[in-house]
Amino acid sequence: MPLQARVYRIFIASPADVSRAREQVVNVIQAWNDQNSADRKVVLLPLRWETHSAPGMGRPQGRINRIVDECDLAIGVFWTKVGTPTGSFDSGTLEEIDRVKSAGKPVMLYFSEEPIPPRSIELDQLSKLIAYKNGLKQQALFEIFTDLNDFGDKLRRQLDIEVRRLMAESGCGEDGDGPSTVIDLQFANPADGSPVGTESECLTKHFQLTNLESVTNAPPSQTLGAASSLTYFGANGELYSNRLDWYVAAELFRPVAFYLTNKGTIGARDVLIDFRVWSESDSVLFSPPCFVSGGKLARRSLFQQLTPVWGSASFSSVLSDAKPVDRIAPTQSSDGWYFSLEVGALQPGREICPNGLLFVGATESCRINFSATVYADMLPKPLDQELTLKVQVEHVTRDARELLDSLNREREPS
Length: 414
Fold this sequence. Notes:
CATH topology of the largest domain: Immunoglobulin-like
Strand content: 25-35%
Helix content: 25-40%
CATH class of the largest domain: Mainly Beta
Number of strands: 19
Number of domains: 2
Number of helices: 10
CATH architecture of the largest domain: Sandwich
């Protein structure tokens, strides 16, 4: 099947003393095509006067300028000379660079610092080059290189940066033509990682325990839905009260996962999603420290050691003995909670549920809003997306001793 691709034309501007560097530019461009064209649906086409012009009447530089005007990007390379005067400029190379710059197109300039054989020095040419280079210091950022290998390494890295910028500007333009990156964000089912949309709903239980004094070493709070009680974490002598804490928290908190899709035709790299979580209710809570160890969610077996209830549907489907899951720990601010997710790369058509769960609870039914900003190297500007989680809270009042006895009975072998 033919490759449908956008073509960016790169004009190579240089005097005659850097013929090897000109070939290096072509080699770097070809290597970029080999590594990226199929995935990014972009082809780079090197333009050179010696390969893209034909004999004809008229001002020679004028004929070359027709090629220059077609380019999307120019790469200029210098060593000891500026080149042959054209009547309008000190050299054809300088005229070419000026035309590209005046058209508002990017120009990448490189200056060689390789040793110069004394017999090849033309003082007039060298002085013009030095003057030109000094004049650029206040108006351009240019690169120097010490040999061809150094030039190739720098050009490979910097060309990719410039091409990504071109792709972002033209690939996602308002006209909608050409390849593009379109990243879609939604909630995921924590159990299997499947997408569930931009609006989701979860059911949770908020326990009020009575008769806590009947439980050995019970914490003083009468409401285990309070943050102070949820974070209670004692030693072995407080096992009973800890069991109640774990159970109440397991019923209160629900895992929230996310799903990313690249619906465009260009792969994206360095994908970053910044979230602001907010709610009109002040009853929203996030998972307490007792659920994590070193930033990772506790393994399923740890819940099973306490009681099978704590390995129930709330947690067992999202916890794995083979691979711990990162817990997302948001930072609270005056206008909400903040956290980020990162994905190294997202190829066209790729769908992914990033490794990371946010555990959310509430003591009253409410709506929790997720305002997300998506960044990626191929996006001309960040994408803003909104997600909404509806939390339905069931209020339950239980006698602490009865609940503890019930949990112990469930642990007993049948």
